[in-house]
Amino acid sequence: xxxxxxxxxxxxxxxxxxxxxxxxxxxxxxxxxxxxxxxxxxxxxxxxxxxxxxxxxxxxxxxxxxxxxxxxxxxxxxxxxxxxxxxxxxxxxxxxxxxxxxxxxxxxxxxxxxxxxxxxxxxxxxxxxxxxxxxxxxxxxxxxxxxxxxxxxxxxxxxxxxxxxxxxxxxxxxxxxxxxxxxxxxxxxxxxxxxxxxxxxxxxxxxxxxxxxxxxxxxxxxxxxxxxxxxxxxxxxxxxxxxxxxxxxxxxxxxxxxxxxxxxxxxxxxxxxxxxxxxxxxxxxxxxxxxxxxxxxxxxx
Length: 301
Description:
Blueprint: H1 2-33, H2 38-48, H3 50-70, H4 76-99, H5 102-119, H6 121-125, H7 129-143, H8 153-189, H9 209-224, H10 228-259, H11 266-276, H12 279-292, H13 297-300
Helix pairs in contact: 2-3, 2-4, 2-8, 3-4, 4-5, 5-8, 8-10, 9-10, 10-12
């Protein structure tokens, strides 16, 4: 009897120890899946219509609120992202359903994000370093137990200063990439949802280059007059418009990968490298395409 009790306790202890990493894995997977909230909402909008799309968004809202209730009531800062994603998904789903345009929906998403940032711009521009540090610590605590990341005061100040200055544009870039990822999966994996479009021949309006010139001018002016706020506005503009030219550079890359008949399994690897390692290079490629017309689109037109 004692042997059976000992064996039972041993299995119980092993089960509990195994349960901890399993629960952690579930939370990590759930955290990753949050970025794909727009995907089912927009899909149902386009495939079955507004009623199904709104029903999916409503279900998402119920899931978020139920999760908060079951966890004892999450803080508002933890609920803002999923709640915003649900509302945002319904908004771009409605636009996609009305237009069936992939590029149009993507730019509608960008405009929506810009308006959101403008409405809350004061919060991000005047974000105190103390609040930002606490926010960063909270986020890192979810992903790592390393308590020494901010031990070096110089590195801490440099990191916080950089994040504070670029908070608006970094948030815009991340949100736009999230939108692009969801929409491009729908475009590629579910033919017929959007109107036909050749994304490898997509390009920005030529007049947008004047915003790049203005951003460079503002940034240079801030450096010359030694004004941190002017410098900050110029840098955020550069990062924001640079994101758009990065996607134009990505389109150029896709054009030549198709033209050179690159091995299909190699393409995802090259795209991941483009996002992680060569984002600045692709942004510059997109800018110089205005003058050099790398794909010959101007000659064709």
